Amino acid sequence: MSVPHLIVAHPDPAAARKQQRDVRSGALLRVAHGVFVTRAEWETATTWEQHIARAAAVQLRSPGSIVSHASAVIVHRLPWIRPVPDRVTLLVPGRATAQRTRFADKVATTGRELDTVSVDGVDVTDPATTAVDVALRYDRGRALMVADAVLRRGWPEELLAGRAAARPNVRASRRLRDVLKLASPLSESAGESITHLAMHDLGLPAPVQQQAFRDQAGLIGRVDFWFPDHGVVVEFDGLVKYRDASHRSGRSAEEVVIDEKLREDRLRAVPDVRHVVRPVWRDVMPGGRLPTMLSATGLPVARGITATLPW
């Protein structure tokens, strides 16, 4: 990542006036009170890099604060579904009420123990706390993708459960416990997490994750989800491996398509495999085709759930 460099308001009056002229001309952009970045760096940065720069800037102007919730997800480089927040979410120790400002949403912290780490100089809630915060504020899809990623990084489920139990909101904690029952370090992407949740909501039995398949030529590979009693493989296809060169291991997009086709042909030739389902994002999102796709394989999709995935 190439996070824009922060420029703090200059204490010298003449230099400060020059900065203000640069702000008016658009050469500098204000990302927090008294903190700027150059337009050139800002416009070449991704939305994630921009948010990380804003988080560092806002924290610089709020000493002792802690970046949290969706902002912490982005600072930790955990998976997230767009949009990236406009404002930075901050925990301010001792604060009893929430406050929204131009650059930040400040969250009340009364009665909370704050477990924090430093990431690239930004004080942020640790991954376990971040997962709990997300689960208590956002939808179950985002909650599960973050919890899966935190478990995948080696944070124990018992720690997340303990952090959840310490929160006073019993109803929200119950929702979090339900998410943690489904969370798994074997889900390797946000798309897999959402697919897993959607299949759960459709009443399907628990699939085997990352099942390896072999044929006479050797290892075919691991699949995202395997329903052995029905002979169904479900592979989430996020399309990033076709579009992003960093995911193609030196291959062209055309070569990746061919390799995926050959791999799928080998999978379909395995005697136990009767169906291979490859949903993409639009299929697994609410209102997508996933229920129809799975039902067509003979999987026992719950009666009455045909169009809406309630997460």
Short description:
This is AbiEi antitoxin C-terminal domain-containing protein. This protein is α+β, with helices and mostly antiparallel strands.
Report on this model:
This is AbiEi antitoxin C-terminal domain-containing protein. The protein has 311 residues and is an alpha+beta fold. Helix content is 41%, strand content 18%. It has 13 helices and 13 strands. It has a 4-stranded mixed β-sheet. A 4-stranded mixed β-sheet has the order 10-11-12-13. Helix 5 (127-137) crosses helix 7 and helix 7 runs antiparallel to helix 8 (170-182). It starts with 6 loop residues before the first strand and ends in a 16-residue tail after the last helix. Mean pLDDT is 88; it is low at 244-248 and 306-310.
Integer average pLDDT: 88
Main pleated sheet = 4 strands, mixed
Q: What order do the helices and strands follow?
A: EHEEHHEHEEEEEHHHHHEEEHHEHH
Sheet with the most strands: spatial strand order: 4-5-7-6
Helix content: 40-55%
How far apart the termini lie comes to 31 Å
- Can you count the beta strands? 13
Low-confidence stretches: 244-248, 306-310
The class by helix and strand makeup works out as alpha+beta
What share of residues are in beta strands? 15-25%
* Spatial extent as radius of gyration: 23 Å
Report the principal-axis shape.
globular
Number of helices: 13
Protein name: AbiEi antitoxin C-terminal domain-containing protein
